[in-house]
Amino acid sequence: MKPLPTFDYLPKPYTGPSKAEVLRLRHEFVNPAIFHYYREPLMIVEGRGQYLYDETGRRYLDAFGGIVTVSVGHCHPHVTAAVQKQNETLQHTTTIYLHPNIALYGQALAGKLPGDLKVCYFVNSGSEANDLALLMARAYTGNFDVIALRNGYHGGSQSTMALTSHHTWKFNTPHSFGVHHAVAPDLYRGRWTTADSGPAYAAEIEQIIQFATPGKIAGFIAESIQGVGGAVVFPDGYLSEAYRHVRAAGGLCIADEVQTGFGRTGSHFWGFETQDVIPDIVTMAKGIGNGCPLAAVVTTPEIARCLAERIHFNTFGGNPVTCAQGMAVLEVIDQENLQANAAAMGERLLEGFRNLQAKHPLIGQVRGQGLMLGCELVTDRSTKEPAKAACLHVFERCRELGVLVGKGGLHGNVLRIKPPMCLHADDVDFLLDAFDEALASA
Ligand code: PMP
């Protein structure tokens, strides 16, 4: 295997507590729900561009981007400078006083959205954004029922856990009242597998409205490509038909762009644009801030007004520092043409993975768009039996070879490749070599 592509950066010598000590402290003082990847946990102490460094100074290609969050690269100098400048000037006051950042950033972000999606509400996480979108949909329509998709992930708070549709993420609490899950339009594992089955899948939404609700719904929420669910891409025509059914029942259409937004799909800035629809509410997080706690709900002025009927407040939302970071991220995406790079690198990866699929029977399907890719492993291509153990092997072996990827899908058999959008062609080739070697030994 070729070595990692050369990179002109020297990490700082690490002088903090040892990895063993950090692990011990985590076990003692951090909630055990905070799990870590890898049999032998990895400690990461520095990052630059598309690379991460462990405490020994070893460099890794980061093909998971802090769970699809580091959009423009680790510690991008333009982003770091903007944040540093704001940190030295004013860190926090809340929105009870005017500050230019929230206003200017609101304008810049709204400028990236189509149609009448022009009013932003800033919060701190994807769960919070989806929670607020639900509230808006219910407040605006006066309806309660909501439809989400099976295999979707929308957060871990009480209300978003209800939307999330994997038993593995759900606690045994009464959180799902008024939430219905429609079957996901999954062309690999779903009932229909042909490219023209979008409307057939969408018809399920109409059925749910007719059989499980009062015939009126508050809304429908879907990721534009299912992320945690393993990069499930919907067939063309799915969302437009789904939206038609939802709107006929008085509901609002919510696009969860937490993973797919900000150019990651390559062909479009927003994932929903790949389905040729305009939602009523768009939620975003992760890549919006390149790693800071920034998220947003963007909607139309008319829908936004419903939130002003009561007092609604978020202490950190629209904070001057996170808004400065969000603004700098938007600037870098534009200045460095990262969306176009995501398209080109995504194509190169997809082609490489298809070649690997021809060579390794373990690969059942390769899918995704831009830098939102999944590689599903199966023990048998005809039964599609999930190759969970092999997936774990490839995942661990890739780390040994210097590539960090993610895992996903209900069965944990999908490798998720979602690197920062500053990825280079030689990184792609390195990643593919690592996969080739890892798959060969699985
Ligand atoms: N929506 C999607 C599509 C996500 O992937 C996630 C996080 N994985 C969330 C919402 C929740 O975001 P957060 O973890 O910031 O609450």
**Percentage of residues assigned to helices:** 25-40%
- Distinct helical segment count: 13
Residues in β-strands, percent: 15-25%
The largest sheet has its strands arranged as 4-12-11-10-7-5-6
The secondary structure category is alpha/beta
Q: How big is the Rg?
A: 22 Å
The span between the termini is 17 Å
Largest sheet report: 7 strands, mixed
Write the layout of secondary structure elements.
Elements lengths: L18 H11 L14 E5 L2 E4 L4 E4 L2 H4 L8 H13 L10 H11 L8 E5 L2 H16 L4 E4 L8 H6 L15 E4 L15 H15 L6 E5 L1 E2 L5 E2 L4 H11 L3 E5 L24 E4 L10 E5 L1 H4 L15 H16 L2 H22 L3 E7 L2 E9 L4 E2 L1 H14 L1 E2 L1 E3 L5 E4 L7 H16 L2
Helix pairs in contact: 3-10, 4-10, 7-8, 11-13, 12-13
Primary descriptors:
single chain; 442 residues; alpha/beta; 13 helices; 36% helix; binds 4'-deoxy-4'-aminopyridoxal-5'-phosphate
What does this structure look like?
The protein is α/β, with parallel strands linked by helices and 442 residues long. Helix content is 36%, strand content 17%. It has 13 helices and 18 strands. The chain has helices at 19-29, 65-68, 77-89, 100-110, 126-141, 158-163, 198-212, 238-248, 301-304, 320-335, 338-359, 388-401, 425-440, and strands at residues 44-48, 51-54, 59-62, 119-123, 146-149, 179-182, 219-223, 225-226, 232-233, 252-256, 281-284, 295-299, 363-369, 372-380, 385-386, 403-404, 406-408, 414-417. Strand 8 and strand 9 (232-233) form a beta hairpin. It is globular. 4'-deoxy-4'-aminopyridoxal-5'-phosphate is lined by residues 125-127, 130, 153-155, 223, 227-228, 256, 258-259, 285. 4'-deoxy-4'-aminopyridoxal-5'-phosphate binds at residues 125-127, 130, 153-155, 223, 227-228, 256, 258-259, 285.
